[in-house]
TrEMBL record:
It catalyses: 2-C-methyl-D-erythritol 4-phosphate + CTP + H(+) = 4-CDP-2-C-methyl-D-erythritol + diphosphate. GO terms for biological process: isopentenyl diphosphate biosynthetic process, methylerythritol 4-phosphate pathway. Pathway: Isoprenoid biosynthesis; isopentenyl diphosphate biosynthesis via DXP pathway; isopentenyl diphosphate from 1-deoxy-D-xylulose 5-phosphate: step 2/6. The lineage of its organism: Bacteria, Pseudomonadati, Pseudomonadota, Gammaproteobacteria, Chromatiales. The keyword Nucleotidyltransferase applies. It comes from Acidihalobacter ferrooxydans. The keyword Membrane does not apply. This is 2-C-methyl-D-erythritol 4-phosphate cytidylyltransferase. Signal peptide: none annotated. It holds the Pfam family IspD.
Amino acid sequence: PVFWIVIPAAGVGSRMGADKPKQYLELAGRTVIERTLDCFLGHPRIAGIVVAISADDPFWPVLECAADPRIVRAPGGRERVDSVRSALDLLLPSAAPADWVLVHDAARPLLAGDDLQRLIDALQDDPVGGILATPARDTMKRVDGSGAIDCTVDRSTLWHALTPQMFRFGLLRECLARAAEAGWTLTDEASAIEAAGMHPRVVEGRADNLKITRPEDMLYAQWLLSQRT
Ligand code: CTP
Ligand code: MG
């Protein structure tokens, strides 16, 4: 099978509140987005990588990886899902419907090679696809609109959705288009597949595949990196 990578990287990083989007902040001497791309550039079975970048982004073109022939740039969109759809459109001439696409947040630079490999190995013969995920750790409550607890939700049924999320190119493109048409708000790819009545699989991944979101995440990510090398 053929594997394509889609990296949504057109967010502004409002919760980080830095002077540039968080994907361009440096993490132990290398930008977040370069570290994210490195997770895939070393993999032998990747056919190509599409990064969704804002039209007016001055930070991407000056990076060395912007000139890498394995990486192409698609225009970013208003929401993450729009950026992903834009990247998939760019793949349309090259990708076959049955090819796999792995969508991975630019803001997740700590994806470990063994997690990526486990996801691919677990799903490459699957009819639908699935996602890296990690089991919920805390006791989980359903809370009503007034701030009062309705009930405790059985934690063993709850997982945190991570990325990469791996689906067939044709199916993913179709389901995302259908969701857009219906006006649904999606925060990941799997929800578009679920909405079409299918059941993506979860593949347990490391909890330290964190999405850098707030300033303290940078400190945690730096520490995790220092432990890995
Ligand atoms: N993203 C994107 N296009 C958008 C919004 C987000 O490609 N219109 C990307 C981000 O660059 C990030 C990933 O989607 O890699 C996950 O989004 P998030 O963590 O929410 O990043 P931001 O939207 O940049 O952060 P914030 O929500 O705090 O503004
Ligand atoms: Mg966002």
